């Protein structure tokens, strides 16, 4: 092994300086898996921070030698590494950390490299595991304070992308591992359905994933399926389509998700073809989405027995864009009107909405593979948490918590209602509500003329009153 000077403190008053403790110091016998990455992360960063220039003295398949640019004037700083036998890695054999060159000479006129790898090194060191936390503005200032150089926003952005590649691999590596990942996903999640479509050149085109737990649990969910799509902020682009349901506790229940190239006829047709293999067509199904002509057309073709509705929340935001003043109030009132149960009640609410608003406004105008891994991991945690919550509830309680709380509030009101039995065999009743109106309740078909029992799928106050009457007789 070559002679090494790697001990002792350094007297800065003599003009010689060690590499700052801010970076990971090279050490003899340290193994380097990737020489070029190590040079950028450690050597270049140290030279930037300590104001000295470096040069690669020798570099080939078996050795790697980096010296200070002041070597011609006698500076002894050097890092020498040689390749390990039967391995692609290198091992540091010599490290002399003392600079004997003049501080003024070494720092004067240095043109420092502004590379994404330099930014990535800062994120790795200062924000381990939190590559999203430092904003570009924060990084620009951090690079300036650390290295004394100005870094552009574009270079900082590429640096953050480099961090993602360091942790999760490059996008290209992710696509290569996709088939293996889907195989393991199905192995650890029984009954999981996946589908991967490639184009004519064997490149990624569409992907569909439905976890087995999601498929099995959908039987017990409400049959209303909200759908949404979001553009992916990855190199290859694309759109992530997510379908969800809702349990009686009003928790979102994740259903299949897919990556396609856009909300277009071909991609949507492919998605719904795959969706139909796990959720068959039924008259009970209702798809809820935004006003997308392609989506409406494809849903009608793939699920002819189902219905299509619009998301109230998104419609309320569409209304907002036509409002100059009081937008939040308009959106709130719109949602309130949209959530009534009866047509007559809707007309009444809508007229009140118009009268109340007219005086205020004038209306006249995470790389693909890591992303899927994060989604599946999040869904697994949700299932596990809610399974534990359900197991902790006494077996004597048959209702979910949300419905139980609802029933607790209305059962006392139901006991006080006037109920008349109309048909004993069909379990039909006439109930006088607290508003003085008469409502027809059919316990056999689970309906009430107030429409709440029909839509919410759990008893309204009138159905509670009828059920109490039924139990007494």
From TrEMBL:
Q: The organism sits in which domain of life? A: Eukaryota
Query: Could you tell me one molecular function GO term of this UniProt entry?
Result: zinc ion binding
Q: Which UniProt keywords apply?
A: Metal-binding, Zinc, Zinc-finger
Location of the SWIM-type domain: 439-471
Q: Which InterPro entries match?
A: MULE_transposase_dom, Transposase_MuDR, Znf_PMZ, Znf_SWIM
Put simply, this protein is called Uncharacterized protein LOC108850274
